[in-house]
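Sequence dictates fold. Next comes a concrete instance:
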Amino acid sequence: MQLLQFTDKGINCPAGDFYIDPWQPVQKAVITHAHSDHARGGSQNYLCHHDSVPILQLRLGVDISVQGVAYGEKIRMNGVTISLHPAGHVIGSAQIRVEHDGVVWVASGDYKTEYDGISAAFEPVPCQTFITECTFGLPVYNWQPQQVVFDNIRKWVYDNQQVGKTSVLLGYSLGKAQRLLYHLRDISPEIWAHGAIYITNQMLRDNGWDLPELHRITPDTPHSVFKNNLVIGPPSAADTTWMRRFNPYSLGVCSGWMQVRGHMRRRNADAGFILSDHADWNGLLTAVKATGAEKVYTTHGFSSAFARYLQENGIPAEEVKTEYGVTEEEETNPS
């Protein structure tokens, strides 16, 4: 019997009687991070990194039964040892290490290998079997160092300010928004935010995270306050009436998908910044090799192509269909 199995409810550990990031309600759910495709409501008990606890409570409800643990802390379930290790994806994100009778599997969840300055830096975890995401599992996805990206964003904002435009950046409320705020806190006199960004930012500030204070945009916010300032919103705000209040403005989209020509045009953006919370092609290969895994399962993303590449390079690999990546970030908080 495999230590972890792929079922219609999610990744199951029969010996430990728990699931990793289940997409249907279960008795015991071990959660890699709080994005909506990995952390879903309805389960009776949740285990996650302690930084993810308040985020899960914000998204799934304060009454959920949730236990937080530190990175590297060992938990036993029916004789199976579980520990969480930094994934570098977003605040509180973790890889799940599962050990039983000398056999070790690791489920990566989502991860990136470049340290972003705020999330705990990715750490490879040795194992015999590695379940890896491969959202950007093609050679075309090759990120620039994030400092280069932020320098480009700063220049773009400065250029907008010179012509009296508001700079509007779109990025996920959990992950991308924190990176932008952390690295661009001094870029404009004030930073204004959509409600989805504001609520997440305030919750993290309340829990001790070093993030700048934001101004929340409401229907009553006067148009004049946006001029020459930075606005941050979720991707779902694009092409909505919410954007009209910022005229004249320039729209920048922050996403790994901006690597491919045409994505910026389809998003009706004025600028595209290649900034992702996922590993690029080289990051994925580096992570896989660092685990020393004898078998790799590839999930969500370019899983078939990535598995085939690993096979051709002497690493046994197999694609597995999951529901991850389908609804990575649903922005349901009020505007």
About this structure: Confidence is low (pLDDT under 50) at residues 328-335. The first strand starts at residue 5 and ends at 6. The radius of gyration is 20 Å. The first helix runs from residue 53 to 60.
